[in-house]
């Protein structure tokens, strides 16, 4: 484990606050003596948060969770299409496979250092020590949960590693899940319901994460009989026990700036406009929130358009599948989430005269230049439009509906990569969907339907009067007869599209292979049963004493 455990350098993260910004000092190394001081322990906890940025809202993390599913396939650009295609090129030497593994273990070792040292730090109030230690336990659980979902059984270490070691083994899945559960139950005991510094772990965040963990474990070989029931209880506690609530408007959840910190967000990974702390400096962690780049169509070469800050950087990595557009978002009469998830109009950013629909059209700045109606128009209607119309039959790897929830028009210029949006890791809509699934499997269909309908009712269109409101709302509500795992997966697809959960959802419900074969035209040709796990990095095996006999590769990747 030389490439992993020898890395005990702590690079400090920035946690932003709704009341204040955490002071941060960037340190390239942290000595044993410093980490054992109150200031050092505080900085060690901040460092433990920094690993979050190496996975959330960047191309690595999105590729390993959004790609190769039923909801998204590949656009025209990018170097990692083979992950979506499940070809033999996706192997133990894949850079993303190695980097994700290494980054998570760096984060785990930082957490271990904090957890080990905290009890002995003097001149620090006991309550504060316990809270900081519990934050590290929360993060360690999160990092191990990410590892186990991606790779299966992994090396389990709970003590700080101070020097290189080549001894490693794959722990039983039951042991890893038990550590995750124990860490989170300890965090629930000690963390406050709210923290002064926005972005720190809280009690409801730990409850939400444990509910997600137990929902996942329930369908694994490590399952306990109580997993679904316990997940349901935890999720319900988050929903009813605090001041969280679903916003009335689905789109408002993703309003950039102050709107991101709303009553639906349980916990978020923090980003900032500060270039150094956000990753624009080579010595800082992460790359800012760069998710704004990956879900866009190539609008900037079309008539009346050029690349601009408002419409974003069209890197064309991820393209929605026909299943996403035609099945998940089939109801556009009652459900607002297609309209509020995808950009359907582009306004002229490059005035001039262009040939559009066989005629010359002159655009002024701000005129409609492109429309994606989402359905096929009557040819006469289409010909009457003085702008480009892109119908579903014209979608390509370069032209398709753009997901809007990650766009970042507050970047200082069009080529600036390091977005400042927070990544909304846990939000109440997901908690409701966890509760619905857990109660369904626990046999309490009434509660399952109640929590499912909370999410669906929020998504209903408002009409012109109360009667029309009621009609749309009633059409969105379901009964127990409608509820099964396929419906839940569809609802999670609509609500949580692109939010780095889909690959996990398909794996834990044992539907990855069948759904990719059915709905992902690029991945379905090659996916095999063994693709429910990623390959163990070859570096890990090669640098472990005993090689593959001590640290065996996942099946299918040998």
UniProtKB/TrEMBL annotation:
Record domain RagB/SusD: where: 264-557
Keyword annotations from UniProtKB, A to Z: Cell outer membrane, Membrane, Signal
Ranges for domain SusD-like N-terminal: 35-215
Subcellular location: Cell outer membrane
InterPro entries in the record: SusD-like_N, SusD_RagB_dom, TPR-like_helical_dom_sf
Stated family: Belongs to the SusD family.
Protein known as: RagB/SusD family nutrient uptake outer membrane protein
Species assigned in the record: Olivibacter jilunii
């Amino acid at each position: 484990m030389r490439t992993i455990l020898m890395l005990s350098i702590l690079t400090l993260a920035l946690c932003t606050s709704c009341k204040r910004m955490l002071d941060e000092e960037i340190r390239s190394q942290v000595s044993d003596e410093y980490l054992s001081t109150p200031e050092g322990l505080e900085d060690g906890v901040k460092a433990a948060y920094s690993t979050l940025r190496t996975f959330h809202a960047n191309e690595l993390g999105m590729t390993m969770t959004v790609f190769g599913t039923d909801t998204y396939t590949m656009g025209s650009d990018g170097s990692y299409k083979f992950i979506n295609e499940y070809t033999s090129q996706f192997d133990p030497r894949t850079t993303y496979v190695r980097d994700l593994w290494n980054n998570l273990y760096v984060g785990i070792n930082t957490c271990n250092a904090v957890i080990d040292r905290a009890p002995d730090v003097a001149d620090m109030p006991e309550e504060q020590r316990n809270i900081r230690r519990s934050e590290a336990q929360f993060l360690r659980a999160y990092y191990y949960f990410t590892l186990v979902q991606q790779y299966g059984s992994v090396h389990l270490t709970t003590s700080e590693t101070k020097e290189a070691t080549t001894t490693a083994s794959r722990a039983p899945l039951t042991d890893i899940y038990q550590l995750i559960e124990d860490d989170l139950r300890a965090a629930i005991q000690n963390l406050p319901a709210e923290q002064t510094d926005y972005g720190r772990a809280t009690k409801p965040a730990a409850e939400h994460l444990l509910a997600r963990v137990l929902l996942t474990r329930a369908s694994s070989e490590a399952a306990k009989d109580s997993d679904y029931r316990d997940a349901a209880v935890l999720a319900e506690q988050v929903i009813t026990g605090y001041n969280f609530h679903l916003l009335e408007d689905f789109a408002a959840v993703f309003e950039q700036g102050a709107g991101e910190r709303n009553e639906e967000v349980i916990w978020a990974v923090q980003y900032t406009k500060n270039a150094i702390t956000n990753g624009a400096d080579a010595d800082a962690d992460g790359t800012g929130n760069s998710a704004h780049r990956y879900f866009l169509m190539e609008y900037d070469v079309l008539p009346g358009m050029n690349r601009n800050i408002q419409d974003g950087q069209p890197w064309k990595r991820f393209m929605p599948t026909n299943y996403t557009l035609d099945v998940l978002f089939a109801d556009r009469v009652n459900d607002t989430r297609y309209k509020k998830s995808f950009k359907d109009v582009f306004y002229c950013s490059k005035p001039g005269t262009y040939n559009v629909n066989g005629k010359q059209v002159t655009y002024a700045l701000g005129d409609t230049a492109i429309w994606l109606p989402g359905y096929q128009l009557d040819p006469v209607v289409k010909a009457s439009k003085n702008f480009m119309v892109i119908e579903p039959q014209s979608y390509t790897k370069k032209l398709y509906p753009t997901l809007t929830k990650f766009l970042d028009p507050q970047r200082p210029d069009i080529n600036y990569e390091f977005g400042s949006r927070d990544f909304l890791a846990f939000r109440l809509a997901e908690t409701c969907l966890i509760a619905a699934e857990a109660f369904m499997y626990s046999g309490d269909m009434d509660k399952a339907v109640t929590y499912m309908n909370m999410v669906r009712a929020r998504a209903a269109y408002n009409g012109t009067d109360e009667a029309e409101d009621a009609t749309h709302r009633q059409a969105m509500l379901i009964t127990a007869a409608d509820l099964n795992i396929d419906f839940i997966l569809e609802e999670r697809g609509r609500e949580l599209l692109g939010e780095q959960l889909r690959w996990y959802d398909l794996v834990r419900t044992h539907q990855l292979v069948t759904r990719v074969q059915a709905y992902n035209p690029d991945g379905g040709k090659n996916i095999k049963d063994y693709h429910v796990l990623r390959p163990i990095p070859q570096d890990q095996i090669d640098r472990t004493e005993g090689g593959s006999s001590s640290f065996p590769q996942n099946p299918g990747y040998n």
